[in-house]
Amino acid sequence: MSKISKFFKGGGSAASKRRGGPSPQEALARLRETEEMLSKKQEYLETRIERELAVARQHGTKNKRAALQALKRKKRYEKQLNQIDGTLSTIEFQREALENSHTNTEVLKNMGYAAQAMKKVHENMDLNKIDDLMQDITEQQDVAQEISDAISNRAGFADEFDE
User: Fold this and answer.
1) Cα 65 off chain centre by
2) Quick one: which of 1, 9, 43, 74 has its CA closest to 35?
3) Do residues 91 and 35 lie in contact, with contact meaning Cβ atoms separated by under 8 Å?
4) How confident is the model at residue 22 (pLDDT cuts 50, 70, 90)?
5) How confident is the model over 120-162, as pLDDT tens digits?
6) Crossing angle for the helix pair 24-59 and 64-122, nearest 10 degrees?
7) Cys-Cys link to 52, which of 22, 60, 74, 90 (CB 3.0-4.6 A)?
8) Where do the DSSP E strands lie in the chain?
9) 50 close to 74: Cβ distance less than 8 angstroms
10) Which of 73, 76, 3 minimizes the C-alpha distance to 38?
């Protein structure tokens, strides 16, 4: 089965059909295959246009009918080439959108994992326990400050006596 018939008949994997659609990787691969196929067709048409132009020049004024036929074929090929250009632009846009949505999905999954990890970390924490702990820390800092103040004051016996 050719790539084109696979593309239009949906020759995807059985796994993708069971899941209800292709995976982003499968879709991206198919879009890239289609881009390659259209690019090759583009090259083929460009060479055909050059050949028809050469035929038209060759016949020039000697055989106007053959020259006109060559120019008509050239015009048809150019029309096909323009259609392929439009199709390639559409496929490129779709591929970029799919890549962006896949990236966004991965970012969202990772953010979910991070949220679950944070929930697990905070699971053992109780706000009342944290508040009590912070009060204990504040009390101990006050005690340490009082001790520091007591030690740093000069022991001045002379300050206690009144003349």
Assistant:
1) 54
2) 43
3) yes
4) confident
5) 988 888 888 889 999 999 999 999 999 998 888 866 555 555 5
6) 160
7) 74
8) none
9) no
10) 3
Distance separating alpha carbons of residues 38 and 81, to the nearest angstrom:
10
- Superfamily name and number for 24-114: ESAT-6-like (1.10.287.1060)
Name the DSSP class of 156.
Answer: -
Output the six-digit token pair for 88. Answer: 């390639």
Q: Domain locations in the chain?
A: 24-114
List pLDDT tens digits, range 45-67.
999 999 999 999 998 888 999 99
Two tokens, residue 144: 């340490």
> Cβ neighbours of residue 28 under 8 Å, at least 6 residues apart?
95, 98, 99, 102
The stretch 32-38 carries a mean pLDDT of 95
**Dihedral of the alpha carbons of 15, 20, 21, 26, in degrees to the nearest 10:** -20
